Amino acid sequence: MTESIMELHLLQQYWWLLISILGAALVFLLFVQGGQSLLFGTSGAESRRLMVNSLGRKWEFTYTTLVVFGGAFFAAFPLFYSTSFGGAYWLWMLILLSFVVQAVSYEFRSKPGNIYTYRTYDALLMLNGLVGCVLLGVAVGTMFFGSDFTVNKTDLVATGATTVPVISQWGAGHGLEAIADWRCLLLGLTVFFLARAQGALYFINNIDDARGFGISNRIRVLLNGCIFAVLFIGFVAVLLTSSGARQTADGSFIRESNIYLHNLIEMWWCIPVLAVGALAVLYGIFKSAFSTRWRYGIWFSGVGTVMVVMVLFWLAGYNATAFYPSNAEISSSLSITNSSSTEFTLTVMSYASLVIPVVLFYIIYVWRKMNKEPLTPAELDADSHSY
Prior knowledge:
By secondary structure, the chain is mainly alpha-helical. The protein has helices spanning 2-29, 31-37, 45-55, 59-76, 78-87, 89-108, 117-145, 177-180, 182-206, 213-240, 259-266, 270-290, 297-317, 343-352, 356-370, 377-382; strands spanning 149-151, 168-170, 244-247, 253-256. The longest helix has 29 residues, at 117-145. The chain is globular.
């Protein structure tokens, strides 16, 4: 019995690690949304088409990663999926709607007979760039600062009820209240300006400088990178001084002040990963901003982003921490132990997860094939019919 409990615990730890990797990859790939947001303020239809065609080669990666991220949560931690995705309905619907209009825009922007004009689809891409980044950041923020919900697992087996039983109950906002939480909004804006900086870094790496894109994008990198740095420092300060829910040995939860600071200290290995990741992001941003020939900032910033976001997920879920605190009733908080699938399900899925490296190598291979050389304006314009 004890051995079985230990195996389940290790599986839960393993799947939270996979969730953190997928979440970190998703935040990095939001450079597509950040690049789309830069369409606002870019003059000239040719320049905007150049940017859209460049991003049009990568947008599926972000979309697919978002779907896999949600699917992994559904399979490994179904109680969180049913509580958050089902209860915070309006928040997630706005996020998904923004990604739907993105897909539609890339599909129909340059189709023959387009009656809505390029500007209409460019506006939808900019909308996805803003709403997708900010609201995804807000949604992740609720994993630290909590949401207004209660969970009653006995409703799953309720009999003789006069109404259809539901496992979670939410306030009237159904997720919209998270947008009004300035701490969640702070994280959303941090993600947004990081994505904008990385979008500009991507353009520097991917587009030949024949049309003077380099200068304007280096200015964008510097401006958005500085705003991101200020917001990120503010978010880390808020996070490390915030309270959270800690699960005790008997399965109950207690409120603990400065819980994420305590986690950072107790899980000391997170400190060097966080520090190296943050420095890599700043190095990629500021070297790109001040070097006229260097075009590899997206990789330093991207790797650093993955490292930082992984640490944030570790602080949220490991060390008996509730990764989804309930602000309405602390006993309803969710942790990786009380919201996971069964040992059998996690075991079977763990075998299936062994194909993930194959998928990652495939993505890297396709990416390298697409980016073997920086694309020139003529090459991108020739592909414009596809996007």
